[in-house]
Amino acid sequence: MKTKVIGRMISIVIVLILILGGIFAYIYFGTDLLKSNGQLFFKYLGQVLDVQDGFIDSQLTEYSKKKYTGKYEDSGTFSAEIAMNGIDYGTSQAVNDFNITYSGKVDNTERKNEQNITLNYSEDVNFPFKYKYANDTVGLQTDYVSSKYIGIENSNLKEIAEKFGVEDTSEFPDTIDFFSDFTNQETMNLTEDERQQIIDTYLPIFEEKLGQKEFTKTKENDVTSYSVSVTNQEIKDLILTILETLKNDSILMPKMEEMFKNALDTMNQASDEDMTVQSLIQAMIDDMNDADIEEGTNTITVTQTNRKLSAIALTINDTSTTVEFTISKTNDSGNLTYGIEMNATDNETQENARYFFTASYQGLEELASVNENYQFGIVGNIDGEEQKMIYTLNCTDTFNDGLTIEDFKEDEIQLLNDYSAEEMITLLMNIVERIGEVNSEQMQDIGFDEEAGNPILYAFPLTSIGLLTYNQAASVVKENSMSEVEMNAFNAKFEQYEGVQRGTSVTSLLQAVVTNNISKLYDDRKVEVSGVVTMAKDATEAPTEEINTGSTYNVELQYTEGLVSGIIITEQ
Predict the structure, then answer these.
(1) ∠ CA(172), CA(178), CA(183), 5° rounding?
(2) How far apart, in whole angstroms, are the C-alpha atoms of residue 306 and residue 53?
(3) Is residue 33 scored above 70 in pLDDT?
(4) Confidence label for 427 from pLDDT (cuts 50, 70 and 90)
């Protein structure tokens, strides 16, 4: 009897042990209750490559693949918000009112793309134009210039570059790929075994370098962060060990080398045997070994939300500056958002700058119509004033396997490939002049200072820098000499009227002179008219009423350093 009782007790104890063991195992492996802060730090750091709990998202990968290989209709709006020292309120208002809208179709299966794009300066003032790529030809069209597209066949581009006066075209591509390639994304796709092997390779490096340090925990609602402090020297040692390991990584290195080669091919750059990803990594290692490390304390933070990795941050502190860099991901009810942010603060003046980029996606579950939202910005407090440049792009891609894009018809496009150098430059100069006239009228309509150019130059400061650089370069050309092709193209506008002409042709000549003089920045490219009519370089109207359309006139051209500078008109 006692034996049976003891047997039952042993059975009960074993069952209890199994139950308690299962509960303990669940608590330990299925929850975070029994893990130390350090263990949890490494646990969530190890999720970085997980497609469910980490930064990689399988739905986004599928969307990218479908977008870059399929057919879809698209639409979107791009806008800017600018507030900078040196830009007055009126200019800022014009910039912030400005936006770009587009709508169109993309057919990656046939490598075709057509878009209707509009530069909107106000509700009533805009500049619409069309972009189209079909049958290996790219074209632009606006009714302000012509009913036809102006296009270039995507072949023999070296020849066109030579027409523009480019002497060395060895680095110039013969063709340009106008379509995003999914090859690099496919190259970097990792299998589950490869992801696990990478984690097993690199996570122990962090554990070895940081495992003996003290970790702290902070919690706010469902967001919990685990942090560790490290010195500059420890950060250097950690990075060097990762780079040395990466050099010999049998999984990542081949993929990175293939991506590097694809990037060179896209830019039409020949592969350099001495320039490889491995050599670049070695150069980084050499630079870090040679660099002097200042004293400083840094913080690495890993954040989890609902037991999924949501952010990794690095805070760098030294005597003068505090910099915090954060990469984050959230997925809230199908709204997937990625963020990259850097905050920098001057510890003495408290001036600060925040750089950020966010990308969010809705509709990834069905992959029928996906909304993308991107925002890039720089916001800072300089000299007590807020400075900001914020750019926003909202777009929607709706997949449609039935959409089609027509090829260019022969009568709807002018191909620059068919033009001589002189004809091509003359055409382009006339187009630029016409667009300049339209811009002048539209800037007056919105009350924008015409001398300031266009709000788009302030929405994109680098564009202004580029324009300034161009003008400086143009000044140098002006002070020295124009290219022979450009000089011939300039003269051709007037030489076609040389000799004996009817009054109607002379009237057209006078209009051409006014258009030239108004649009030219340099006095040596402006033309004077004398004889039966007189027109100074600064004339804004042509005295066509003084020309008798039924009479005959002789047109004589005068040249200064090879350029037409004067026109003498005498009646026959």
Answers:
(1) 100
(2) 10
(3) no
(4) confident
- For residue 297, the cross-strand partners are 231, 317
pTM comes to 0.73
Buried/exposed code over 472-491 (b: 16+ C-beta within 10 A; e: otherwise):
eeeeeeeeeebeebbbbbbb
**Better pLDDT: 320 or 441:** 441
Q: Which three-class secondary structure state does DSSP give residue 28?
A: helix
C-alpha distances in angstroms, 323 versus 12, 215, 318, 341, 354?
Answer: 59, 20, 9, 10, 10
How distant, in Å, are the alpha carbons of 28, 241, 283, 291, 293 from that of 287?
43, 14, 6, 6, 12
DSSP states of 394-462: EEEEEE-TT---PPPPGGGEEEGGGS-HHHHHHHHHHHHHHHHHHHHHHHHHHT--GGG--HHHHHSHH
Q: Answer whether residue 116 shows pLDDT above 80.
A: yes
Q: Which residue has the tokens 């190259």?
A: 187
User: Contact, 483 vs 417, CB < 8 A?
Assistant: no
The set of residues, in sequence order, having a beta carbon less than 8 Å from that of 383 and lying 6+ positions away, is 85, 351
Q: What is the pLDDT of residues 48-72, one digit of tens each?
A: 888 777 888 888 889 988 998 999 9
Could you tell me if 500 and 552 are in contact, meaning their C-beta atoms sit under 8 angstroms apart?
Answer: yes
CA distances from 327 to 303, 309, 331 (A): 10, 11, 14
Fill in the amino acid letter for 395: C
Q: Which two tokens stand for residue 178?
A: 């106008």
Q: Is 82 exposed, middle or buried (0-12, 13-18, 19+ CB in 10 A)?
A: buried
* CA angle (361 as vertex; 356, 366 as ends), nearest 5: 170
Q: If you ran DSSP here, which 8-state letter would residue 292 be given?
A: P
Distance CA 473, CA 477 (A): 6
Rounded distance, CA 61 to CA 185, Å? 8
CB of 94 closer than 8 Å to CB of 448: yes
Distance in Å from the first CA to the final CA of the chain: 143
Q: Under 8 Å CB-to-CB from 464, ≥6 apart: which residues?
A: 457, 458
Give the pLDDT band (50/70/90) at residue 391: very high
CA–CA separation, 98 vs 77, rounded Å? 11
Question: By C-alpha distance, which of 522, 516, 529 is closest to 558?
Answer: 529
Residue 15 CA to residue 195 CA, distance in Å, equals 38
